[in-house]
């Protein structure tokens, strides 16, 4: 059976929320949860729902993404028909680089026009959740919707772009508010970074928008055409996270230490990621590891508590790592002490160095730093 | 120009490994799990690709399902190639004959057409039951330099153990003048590792002769190599220095796993210059819980550990519940050690459940023997399994 939907992931979206983490990468390729990149969550959702064609919309800084994705074989997406298709932008003197979602979609019309799937699933590349896309597609079909927006009800994390959505008892969307002011701790229904449209309908609105000079998908389509279009919501009740700030990045990593959250994100499905063929982790005779996630290739001789260790991290004797996120191939020297620290890839912490941040403002160390 | 491969590897993977008891009831020996995430066959396959040999025939016969599925198209070892790559070679039916592989030489003989397809100059014969890292390219170089027709890799073993091996008696230049299979009084300590490089033409000639000989047992060590030697072919030994372990017995398999542990392990699988490739489980990072203790151990992805793990090697997705103690043990993928259970000096196969407060094995000492729990069995709560027992079926209260 041919797939009924194709996927598109916006890989450079909302990057202004976490500038430190995207200096040399896309938001979709931010390392998360020990051995993943953020995009693995959306890609796995798609693959597990039978989607076999996924376009990756990239705008800039996508070298790390290309490196991560490779041929797509690790997601079973190295296919003759479809598979993973990287969609870098067109731009020249006359054709400026797109800046909005609608302009981005406009640049996609060639790709969308050539495919034959009935539906398109548009996903934001900064989202972490276990969506059942088959179910979302079924709801879209049942309502005969033009657009189905996936929403999540929860505390709204302040970020650059938020879309609040209200709907009636039949889930027909009645109100869309784009980038409203939100108070700390405010709870509401917000857009969860996944929407479904009929492919032909999407091509039509993109063409129509170009003719009318529309530039914003959110304001010119969703808000202004709310009454004329059949826009429905699909309320997602599972665990939802997105890269809204450095503090959120820290928090959502740390929440993986809760079994219920791990079960939500990893349980009952295959989570795909790039294979690195690291050796299994080794724990030394004096190692003390508590309440931590440890990835493959680690060698631990010291103390690790309430922390996330990515692949290939070395923690020397007498080193103490607490409440920290240590990315790939870090070396933590003997007697060093880290608390509430996020270290990017390939960081070396020298012996006896002491570093600490706090949960609201974790101390961040750039990729490749030696301290 | 006809495309060809300089060297084709033939990996003998049909063995049952009967001395591994329950561990090989459902799987061929090369597919037995080792070192938390590997299978034995990962080592020769990784050695091949790391040595630049990208054409490998894997000869299977005994319980091939798991092995075949594991190898698949060879992609994890970079052996999915347009020309060459890894190929599973199982016994087949032919117009004039059809038979099982009758011996190591016969298995290779029956796949002569596979080797000839690549028009190779050299054939590397490997076995799928050893743990080691070896550069076959260096051995091939030596084979060319000596101008040998056959080069046999050998390892220096202690004199006291030499009578367990096939021993090569050599001249000072490394040429072999005599083989002795498990000699009572060994003249040399050079033991054959079961790794041979042949000049292809010679191998083909002797395999044909061997096949025509009704008195032959169709074995390399017993028939083909002695025939070559007595015909005066040039045969050399190639000394291998490094870690090499035949994991054909429960004790040696357990020991090889333990050799991975420690600050300066006997055998290092994390060496980035000689990566051991494998098919990787889809599992999240392992989680060591609030009450977990993990020391001097190797742990694969997906484990959830709330109990105590010491001097042990755990495969992927193993669960060790609160209050459980795992010591000096090898636990393979997806097994569960329930709360309060104790596992010592034991090898537990995949998908085993050890019930609450069960006591498996005894503290490791000179009198203790390794316990083996076979694939998929369930040990009910409170059960005591004493030293050296080997179980293939569920153990009830």
Can you tag this structure with a few keywords?
heterodimer, A: 371 residues, Spore Coat Polysaccharide Biosynthesis Protein SpsA, Chain A, UDP N-Acetylglucosamine Acyltransferase, domain 1, globular, B: six-stranded parallel β-sheet, 8 helices, elongated
Given helix and strand content, the structural type of chain A is alpha/beta
- CATH topology heading of the largest domain in chain A: Spore Coat Polysaccharide Biosynthesis Protein SpsA, Chain A
Q: Number of helix segments of chain B? A: 8
Which word captures the global form of chain A? globular
- Looking at the overall shape, the CATH architecture of the largest domain in chain A is Alpha-Beta Complex
Termini Cα gap of chain B? 70 Å
Oligomer: heterodimer
Instruction: Give the averaged pLDDT of chain A, no decimals.
Output: 95
Stretches of chain A where pLDDT falls below 50 for ≥5 residues? Answer: none
Largest interface summary: A-B, 37 and 35 residues
| Beta-strand proportion of chain B | 25-35%
Tally of extended strands of chain A? 28
User: How many E-type strands of chain B?
Assistant: 31
3D shape of chain B: elongated
SSE map:
The complex is a heterodimer of chains A (371) and B (397).
Chain A: E1 5-10, E2 31-32, E3 36-37, H1 39-48, E4 53-57, H2 63-69, E5 83-87, H3 101-107, H4 109-114, E6 119-124, E7 127-129, H5 133-142, E8 147-155, E9 163-167, E10 173-178, E11 187-198, H6 199-212, H7 217-223, E12 231-236, E13 240-242, H8 246-254, H9 259-266, E14 281-283, E15 288-290, E16 292-294, E17 299-300, E18 303-305, E19 308-309, E20 314-315, E21 320-322, E22 325-326, E23 331-332, E24 337-339, E25 341-343, E26 348-349, E27 354-356, E28 363-365
Parallel strand pairs in A: 1-4, 1-6, 4-5, 8-12, 14-17, 15-18, 16-19, 17-20, 18-21, 19-22, 20-23, 21-24, 22-25, 23-26, 24-27, 25-28
Antiparallel strand pairs in A: 2-3, 6-11, 7-13, 8-11, 9-10
Helix pairs in contact in A: 3-6
Chain B: E1 7-12, E2 33-34, E3 38-39, H1 42-50, E4 55-59, H2 65-71, E5 85-89, H3 104-109, H4 112-117, E6 122-127, E7 130-132, H5 136-146, E8 150-156, E9 166-170, E10 176-181, E11 190-199, H6 200-212, H7 220-230, E12 235-239, E13 244-246, H8 250-258, E14 286-288, E15 293-295, E16 297-299, E17 304-305, E18 308-310, E19 313-314, E20 319-320, E21 325-327, E22 330-331, E23 336-337, E24 342-344, E25 346-348, E26 353-354, E27 359-360, E28 371-373, E29 378-379, E30 384-385, E31 390-391
Parallel strand pairs in B: 1-4, 1-6, 4-5, 8-12, 14-17, 15-18, 16-19, 17-20, 18-21, 19-22, 20-23, 21-24, 22-25, 23-26, 24-27, 25-28, 26-29, 27-30, 28-31
Antiparallel strand pairs in B: 2-3, 6-11, 7-13, 8-11, 9-10
